[in-house]
Design goal:
33% of the residues lie in helices and 28% in strands. It is an alpha+beta fold. The chain is globular, with a radius of gyration of 26 Å.
Length: 508
């Protein structure tokens, strides 16, 4: 595992205040907690906005905003209080604490099954002669560590917990949502917000945190209507994606294969058209954010890897400098959640689907927003030599770049700043704009390259004569000349995917 690029991203993130350690000025700061600065907040919000646009709105889902603190009963029903544990191991010499499964994976370069017993971890540690990575001391016996954050509510300190995932409020709220939101199956219900897990050893910056942001979608469906005998609307949705090619790594395969949605369903690689449809939406979403198809895959989990509630599971993974990283857990949770909450709450969770009483099943798309943000930064990041100088650049898709356009005056005199300011004011309500007038034009370009701004507009002396400006492309560093009156139209075309250099007169 090479963490060199990860460390470069973390350094750049701190330098430009994308993200950084919480309470970094204090010696008692806690690991696993991250602050987002101005640029990181813009980037994160754009990822979430894109999730809403390309998944929630596109599929006519509904969205809720649930509480982060929930009563004990919720997590008794969900199984988190009894089963939500990681294997903890401690060095007998230096007392360092670590996750047993991660130590084993680092040594063997193989994924450790989800459902191992504690003694199985001890066997693998002994078999592979794994020692404390810090002092080379012997490791003690593995024990389970429950990752729930317990809190006391009110003066009586009523036992409650910070949620470890956002989806449980979706399940618990389902009867009310069905009664009030005119729900008809199948229906997706989404939620984005903070979740909390008391990780044993958070590490790798945004990739493993104790407080993190999830965007989860739970698709409720009638298990007796998984084939295409559903409504015309559902058939139309499926038909719109059936030729789309998914990157699939089914059980038993060593390499991801390009398989169309239609073939994946007909060959029973994916269990239903409904699941295949939602996997296609997810993959298309990441393509729009700038991830190349060849660098992504849906990896099917085997029985030992699946979560205890999953009937079928696919992890959406992206290849990075440190290996394949899971970004989205895609689980067929069957009726586990609704039946569990029905049993614990003694409330009725059955609904009427047309003329039949049914307890819906659930297909889940559980996305890590922080991990997604890191992946997009890694994919965008590049260092290159430009005329004996090193240029750091983030090649963000214009859709998600913190700033889509920057406006500069060539010099800070002769009325050029006033003209540049006017252009900035005219554009800032429509686009994410930055105004910069400090330093030479070359330094301003480099600053914008480093934070991922796609276009840089320069106001010069010709602007005052003919009302034209130059626009520099971040990726090629080439420039075109355009009319000020055409700027809004041109910027919008670039955000939509058109080539900037074809939208104006080239500057040599």
């Amino acid at each position: 595992m090479d963490e060199g690029k990860l460390n470069e991203i973390v350094t750049l993130a701190g330098k430009r205040a994308f993200f950084f350690q919480t309470a970094e000025v204090y010696p008692d700061m806690n690991s696993g907690f991250i602050e987002y600065g101005p640029l990181g907040t813009k980037l994160k919000n754009k990822i979430i906005d894109s999730w809403r646009r390309f998944l929630v709105k596109r599929d006519e889902m509904i969205e809720i905003d649930g509480s982060q603190i929930m009563p004990k009963s919720i997590f008794v029903a969900s199984g988190h209080l009894s089963s939500f544990s990681d294997p903890l191991v401690q060095c007998e010499k230096c007392k360092m604490i670590a996750r047993a499964d991660k130590l084993i994976e680092e040594k063997t370069h193989e994924t450790t099954p989800e459902k191992l017993k504690m003694e199985d971890y001890d066997f693998l540690i002994e078999k592979n002669k794994i020692q404390c990575p810090k002092c080379k001391g012997a490791l003690g016996k593995t024990r389970p560590w429950n990752m729930m954050f317990k809190v006391g509510i009110g003066p009586e300190q009523k036992e409650s917990y910070l949620r470890p995932e956002t989806c449980q409020s979706i399940f618990a709220d389902f009867p009310r949502l069905y009664a009030t939101a005119r729900i008809k199956l199948p229906i997706g219900i989404g939620q984005v917000g903070k979740s909390f897990r008391n990780e044993i050893s958070p590490r790798q910056s945004l990739l493993r945190m104790r407080e993190f942001t999830q965007a989860e979608i739970e698709v409720f469906f009638n298990p007796e209507k998984t084939e295409l005998n559903a409504s015309d609307v559902e058939r139309e949705k499926y038909d719109s994606v059936k030729s789309y090619v998914l990157m699939l790594l089914p059980n038993g395969k060593k390499k991801a294969e390009e398989i169309s949605v239609k073939d994946a369903v007909s060959k029973k690689i994916i269990s239903s058209p409904l699941i295949a449809y939602h996997l296609s939406l997810l993959q298309q979403f990441y393509e729009k954010l700038g991830v190349k198809k060849k660098s992504m895959r849906f990896r099917q989990l085997n029985d030992q890897e699946k979560a205890f509630y999953a009937k079928d599971a696919w992890d959406f993974e992206v290849e990075t400098s440190i290996g394949w990283v899971e970004l989205v857990a895609c689980n067929n949770r069957s009726d586990y959640d609704l039946s569990s909450h029905q049993r614990e709450s003694k409330k009725n969770f059955y609904i009427m689907d047309e003329d039949k009483k049914v307890l819906p099943h659930v297909f889940e798309l559980s996305m890590g927003i922080d991990r997604t943000l890191y992946i997009l930064m890694e994919y965008a990041f590049e260092k290159e030599k430009v005329k004996e100088e090193e240029r750091s650049v983030l090649h963000f898709a214009p859709l998600i770049a913190p700033y889509q356009v920057a406006i500069f005056p060539l010099v800070n005199k002769d009325g050029l700043p006033e003209v540049a300011r006017k252009i900035y004011n005219d554009l800032k309500d429509e686009f994410e704009c930055s105004y910069d007038a400090s330093g030479s034009i070359g330094k301003m370009y480099r600053r914008q390259d480093e934070i991922g701004t796609k276009m840089s507009i320069t106001v010069d002396y010709d602007t005052k004569k003919d009302k034209t400006v130059s626009i520099r492309d971040r990726d090629t560093m080439k420039q075109i000349r355009v009319k000020v009156s055409d700027l809004s139209k041109i910027i919008q075309k670039v955000i939509s995917g058109e080539d900037l250099l074809k939208l104006g007169k080239p500057i040599k």
